[in-house]
Amino acid sequence: MGLSFGSVLRRGVLAGMLAGLAAAVMIWLVVEPVIRRALVIEDLRSMHGGQAAPPGFAAHGGGEPLVSRTAQVVGGAVTSVVVGIAVGVIFAVVFARVRERLPGRGDFGRSMVLAAIGFAAVSLLPALKIPSNPPAVGDPSTVGRRTMLYAVVLLLGVAVAVVVPTMDRRLALRGVVASTRWALDVAAVVVLLALVLLLVPGSPDQVPADVPADLVWDFRLASLAQLATMWLALGLAFGLLMERIAARSRALRPVAS
């Protein structure tokens, strides 16, 4: 039973949808409570003419902006599923192209390896350099610069994920032993990531004095946990779906007499 590109792509769509749903659950359970804490600070600023609220001053009742969060959360969940499907499609295309070069036992292991690479290059590296901030942090005038820096770091992360395996294959063709290649791969990853973190400018935004540090870090960790959940669910779902193809192929294989 052959493995067609169409079958891989369909499994990528399904796995991406499941990953998007998992990320949406994380948004609702983990990210949304932190966002609501940040929105309280924005409410306090609006009550004080846009200035930081006095220390110790607390808002009660939430107000109208918090009520409208229901529609925003639903929209965010739908967006999460759409993004998950798009990532699943890209994941399936990349998997089909590099399947034979991915390490791991079986397609499940290869899927998990690719998901780990995707998380590190597309989510973790940008989060370390341009960390996400809650609603109470960030100047609207710097949105364009922040977006550009985030995109640059993301593209550089993808470039590292492409360059290092390419280097490894060329070393293998020259007869370099696996242990030496592994050491050179690790060194190359460390050097390239260090250059990205050192040379690319950081976020231009400063955390306002009325925003507690624990709120900022809770939001950043929650956002990273949401992304990690999406990649983990994508790797698990896609790997399991691909293993079903292998199991079906083995079941249909004639038994030698």
From TrEMBL:
Query: Which residue ranges run through the membrane?
Result: 12-31, 73-96, 108-128, 148-167, 179-201, 221-242
* Source taxon at top rank: Bacteria
Please verify whether the record's keywords include Transmembrane: yes
Record has Membrane as a keyword: yes
Q: Which InterPro entries match?
A: CbtA_put (IPR012666)
The alphabetized UniProt keywords are: Membrane, Transmembrane, Transmembrane helix
**What's this protein's name?**
Membrane protein
Q: Which organism is it from?
A: Terrabacter aerolatus
